[in-house]
Amino acid sequence: MSPPATTSGAGSLTPVEPGGTGVGTSGGGALGPLHGKRVVLGVCGGIAAYKAVEVCRRLADAGALVSPVLTEGATHFIAPLTFTALAAEPARTSLFGPDGRGDLASPVPHVALGRSIDAVVVAPATARLIGSYSAGISSDLLTATLLATRAPVLICPAMHAEMWEHPSVQDNVALLRRRGVHVLDPAEGRLAGGDYGKGRLPDAHEIVAALATVLGHRSGPLAGVTAVVTAGGTREALDPVRYIANRSSGKQGYAVAAELVQRGAAVTLITSSPLAPPAGTEVIGVESAAEMEQAALAAGDGADVIVMAAAVADYRPAVTADQKLKKTGAPVTLELVPTADILAGLCARRRPGQVIVGFAAETAAGAELVALGRAKLAAKGADLIVANEVGTAGVGFGQDASRAVIVSEHSAEDLGVVPKRVVATKLVDTIETLLSPAASRRPRDARCQTPDAKGRN
Q: I want to staple 250 with a disulfide (CB 3.0 to 4.6 A). Which of 79, 201, 232, 330 is the partner?
């Protein structure tokens, strides 16, 4: 059974320069999406708590009415008075006031906050906070507010790399994502104690930009662009237990989707991969080539950009058994029939100005890899083909690196062996160029034709 369609949380949405929020300011400039919004800024007890001061300042500069809520642990790292001086109202640290009656404005401050706000952002969010929130445990004002509110929630985890990678933390984060909580993944870099790894709190401008996206605002060079990205390898059922599949992990498609989101595009990710989806994408889960075809054709009709990064099966069993096929000891002959050519089908029905990209996984290198990419480009009628080598150890399926060439009608850019996120960056750079007004005036649609033979993606 395919996973249901879901919408993932806001993620590494950084289409702005470090010097600004990219979402407008409260003074002099155009009013941005945060202007006048009531935002609870939750701060947990971690070394990254000092960065929350800058988040508070930038939210206030963007016109948000900030209500800081600090956990007891946070007060060991930063004084509540600092947030009170920057925010719209005094920082809160407890469900109970000095006299035991709770917040002076309300005997139930978590409910009052939860009902009156437009969003909650927790930065940093510690493993303890994530665990309590996912389990529904109300242990302080911040967790109580998170459980009481129906407003959008953005959490920004920050912790040591080993803690972030722990299965219990990953399970808790995945559960929150499934419940609709937006998650801005931690950045990779220098951590407390001199270590290096994934666990840093993203910079303040990234957090504010992510919150703006949660509230419906996108900015960047691809703002207003809709994109469809496919990822992962399809699985073709033999019976209820077994299937035919390939080694694709979906990492490259996910990197492309993340890069498009980061530049402001609205991205639909059609995926068969079990990886956590890139933040900020609308996710449609599929399993078979037929399901991917149906989803891609439906979503692709209205898209400006289609990137077919999925490793779609070329063949499927002619018959799928209703019951498990029993082992008899005798040889078995399996009849396979071709699956639909999704890339060719998308190209054949493309709209004027639509950019379509295909991928070609090949056990070839050098000039042969380029030639195979060009052959697929001609057969499919796409704008670009990313030909990537999968026959060498350390690159290709399941790896973090790729040896890739971006092939167009008139050029072939050999990227060498680079991380898949670099392939994504280079590819989206090229897509941006094709979307430019000058490029849109050049006829591309004449190349689109249904090929006689399948050059598979």
A: 232
